Amino acid sequence: xxxxxxxxxxxxxxxxxxxxxxxxxxxxxxxxxxxxxxxxxxxxxxxxxxxxxxxxxxxxxxxxxxxxxxxxxxxxxxxxxxxxxxxxxxxxxxxxxxxxxxxxxxxxxxxxxxxxxxxxxxxxxxxxxxxxxxxxxxxxxxxxxxxxxxxxxxxxxxxxxxxxxxxxxxxxxxxxxxxxxxxxxxxxxxxxxxxxxxxxxxxxxxxxxxxxxxxxxxxxxxxxxxxxxxxxxxxxxxxxxxxxxxxxxxxxxxxxxxxxxxxxxxxxxxxxxxxxx
Length: 277
Ligand code: SAH
Description:
Helix 2 (53-56) links the parallel strand 2 and strand 3. The protein has helices at 33-41, 53-56, 79-91, 110-120, 132-139, 170-176, 189-198, 228-235, 252-255, 257-261, and strands at residues 18-22, 44-47, 64-67, 96-100, 124-127, 153-157, 179-183, 206-211, 219-224, 241-245. The protein is an alpha/beta fold. The strands form two sheets. A five-stranded parallel beta sheet has the order 3-2-4-1-5, sandwiched between helices. The longest helix is centred in the N-terminal third of the chain and has 13 residues, at 79-91. The protein binds S-adenosyl-L-homocysteine (SAH). The site of S-adenosyl-L-homocysteine has 25 residues, from helix 5, strand 8 and strand 10.
């Protein structure tokens, strides 16, 4: 690690170990210091499809980079193949960094990979990361909790191996969670929105879709539950994208700090009309 940060006992990455590291949503500045420490020491980096290329500029000279991630619609390795590769590299005595987008344990199959290492007797370390559904939204000026709006937030996946997450009780989520954050939601957005409305959510309820959050091509679409699928399609909003449903989305009018960076005024400092400080 940098000499300018000498006060911490940085862990050493030993041969034969796998470190499962969350890379954060994209912006290299949102990687943790433990993540940077891992990037500097690893001789083998096995990374996801979603990893921002700028992060990979930080790997140690001569380190091997292996792109291995699952990507919807594109031929990609199976989870078993990825796990077997990690086990094989560790057994060959490599210092393996498994770099995954966001947090490795949030809709990232990190649990499965760590379990495969555990079963194989390969030692590992887990380094959490900033998840897109929290940090990506914060970067876009949307707080996932806000005292006057919600005391609960639900994180859901918009699809799994069986399609539109069939085991989810969308009605219960619609009734119980003032703010709903949907990962991998673009493919089934019309159906998800339809289910939430059918369960009583207002079609006029604010929705934000944040695509490529914290990356150079970040785009934010502010829309409504009733129109989000059509508007996203018309605007050409593409994955990776996070969908946030709820009144918290309105706060972006006050909290979109990127306007300040660009020298533009905030749109409204009290968008909820609560007058609170
Ligand atoms: N482990 C990751 C999530 C992996 S699932 C995390 O904690 O963030 C992949 C989904 O995450 C994408 O379909 C998208 O919904 C979301 N996602 C990941 N990175 C994103 C980004 N930079 N911008 C918007 N959404 C992102």
